[in-house]
Amino acid sequence: MPVRQDRRRLLKAMAAGMIGLPLAGCSTWPAAPGRAEHQVIASAVRFANGDDGVAAFDTGGRMLWRRRLPARCHGGAVSPDGRLLVLFERRPGWRAHVMELATGRLRGELPLAEQEHFYGHGVFSPAGDRLYATVNDYANGRGLVAVYHHSDRGWQRADTFDLAGIGPHQIVLNPVDDTLAVALGGIDTHPDYPRLKRNLDTMDPALMILDRRTGQVLARHRPSHHQLSCRHIAVTPEGAVWAGYQYQGPAHHRPPLIARLGSQRFEEFRLPVGIDGQVDNYIASVAACPATGLVAMTAPRGGVVVVVDGRSGRHVGTTAVVDGSGVTAAPGGGFLISTGQGQVLALQPGGTPSKLLTPDVRWDNHLIA
Amino acid sequence: MSMTGSVLKQALRPLCLLLAVWLPQPLLAEAPAKSLWQQSIQAGYQRLADATLALAESTDQYCLAPDTAGREQVEDHWRSAFEAWQAVRWVDFGPVERNNRAWQFQFWPDPKNLVGRKARVLLQSAGADLDEAVARGGVAVQGFPMAEYLLFDQGFNGSAQALPARPACQVLRAVTRFTASNAAELSGDWQAFAPHYLSEAAYTDTTIRAAMAALDILVERRVAGPMGLRGNGKRSVYAADAWRSGHSLAAIRASVAGLQSQFLPGLSQQLDRAGKPALAKDIGAGFADTLARLETLPDAMGPALEGEGFAELQGLYIDLSQLQQAVNRKAAAALGVVRGFNSSDGD
């Protein structure tokens, strides 16, 4: 029952609403039960001199390595055996770096076809021999999933799934039914003018479910408004997919920003009045905590992290975190949150949220674990 | 009556106290600066609406009865309207965010010359409904750069298709009409947005961050970029805005003047309230010095990039960089405005 107790304690700690984060002191994160070593977590970073790169730390609070890279990166994936990290350049991404998670040593790149770029996310198959990445075929405006296969010759393109949609972003594996979940943002962009959104009137975003072997689209769940760009997702151990939106409509609208797909039912949830405004219509990252059943969503524009109960969808708490964006479940329960100001914070079950480490880098958008 | 009034006052007292407690203090303190900003932005959008309407009307007149004076008036009106846009271009929040409106006014940067390519396509659509073609043609055809191409592009002006040829006139009329209607809508939308702007406390920081971003764009992309101080190190007027009309430096002057008249008064008030009147004075002097230098510079940037005027550009770059430091570092720190990495540039 320790899990339940942890969850109850975190719920209790968060129930009061805003939990302040004392920034003094430094705590270490305990290794997960039954695990001798601390978990390694990587993230794209910007260094103090403005260069872009990647860095890794462990859940004990130690910086492990850092490496400069030719361009700004975004998200990525760790192989099931924990040995490889694949890090994607930020949209429009021309490279996906394959590296050793423990050392940061570069091991290669994923190839791209002509007139394609990465969107910034990918995921490994359960056996680790395949890798699925979201890709833009920008000459034709087609959103794709590029499938890579690992062989003696390295990572080769094995297949391409056409999503019949625009702007796929994060992709995750659902271990319960062995499907792929794809957050289809719906926004048409072109690498020549990368920040220009070309189809705000005609966006058609969705949370899509794919057969990961054939690429067959099994389901396409559309948000309640066509300008709710479905961008970031996470899966709970029970197989529910949680999605965070980025609203492209007027700033004073307050649409629902989070959704859950569980047991064939797709539901959106509204945050309580007051909290919804703090989120500023923009969810940057989503993570599900297996130990507590909680789901965290970061909202850097609003400067908060929102936590909801993964089973009921009930809002559990909101924590003020300046420029917080990356989030991942912590091995012992709770969440780690990275900020653009350099901090990695631990939102710990039953304890006071605390600072795990603050190296001289800006953590960029996602934590990869 | 007085008794009733007194009873009412008594009854309302707890409510007033409650409201006073409930209203966040910063909201009460910030209201005057936001009110200044709201009004000056409204005036800026109205000027844009008036100037773009004048451009559309003079285009109509010129195309009906083309002559040299008419052509000069259209060009003058393009310059005035473009400057009106430059003055209020720093506002990157509110109704201008809707449907890429900022891009609709000015598609920039345009490293692949999409404006030139789209112009050639539009010019071949004679007979089609050009209002519809412009409305559906995307941001590269909808604003000032497309009108600038038709009025000022050297290669185009030397061709048989040049104004006042009928297709060119049809396209220019459609583009200037679209821009005028866009500006009128924006001005109306800002008016409708005002209550929300004034009531949401977060818009104080949003407004300051908008000016910070505009200063970054001025220094890094509109000045340092063409000067070859960034990227590949090559000087290139094509990296500036409004190079076809030779109006790059005039556009920078209009943007700095816009920040001075629309943003600075509210910022100074905020700094005074934060006990930083000396910083407010320094920033005011920085704007005045930068504008004084800009007054001595020509409208075009091209010749200065190639010749002796380069030292003057370097002086401008230094003035603007100092202004950027004073606002983006000192004033932001004094007012507790944080511009995040993830909060300002996520994906």
Task: Describe this structure as you would to a colleague.
The complex is a heterodimer of chains A (369) and B (347). Chain A is built from two helices and 29 strands. In chain A, strand 7 (96-100) and strand 8 form a beta hairpin. Chain A has helices spanning 2-15, 275-279, and strands at 18-19, 40-47, 52-58, 63-68, 73-78, 84-89, 96-100, 106-109, 116-124, 130-137, 142-151, 154-162, 168-174, 179-184, 206-211, 217-221, 228-235, 241-247, 258-262, 265-269, 285-288, 294-299, 304-309, 315-320, 324-329, 335-339, 344-347, 354-357, 361-363. Chain A is 5% helix and 47% strand. Chain B has 347 residues and is mainly alpha-helical. In chain B, 74% of the residues lie in helices and 0% in strands. In chain B, 44% of the residues are buried. The model of chain B is unreliable at 1-30 (pLDDT under 50). The interface between A and B is medium-sized, with 36 and 24 residues.
Q: Which class best fits the helix and strand makeup of chain B?
A: mainly alpha
Question: In angstroms, what is the radius of gyration of chain B?
Answer: 23 Å
What percentage of residues of chain B falls in helices of 4 or more residues? Answer: over 70%
Count of distinct strands of chain B: 0
**Which structural category fits the helices and strands of chain A?**
mainly beta
SSE pattern of chain B = HHHHHHHHHHHHHHH
Task: Provide the residue-averaged pLDDT of chain A.
Answer: 90
Helical residue percent band of chain A: under 10%
Low-confidence stretches of chain B: 1-30
> What's the alpha carbon Rg of chain A, rounded to whole Å?
19 Å
- Average pLDDT over all residues of chain B: 91
Oligomer: heterodimer
Largest interface: A-B, 36 and 24 residues
**Count of DSSP strands of chain A:** 29
**Strand portion of chain B, in percent?**
under 5%
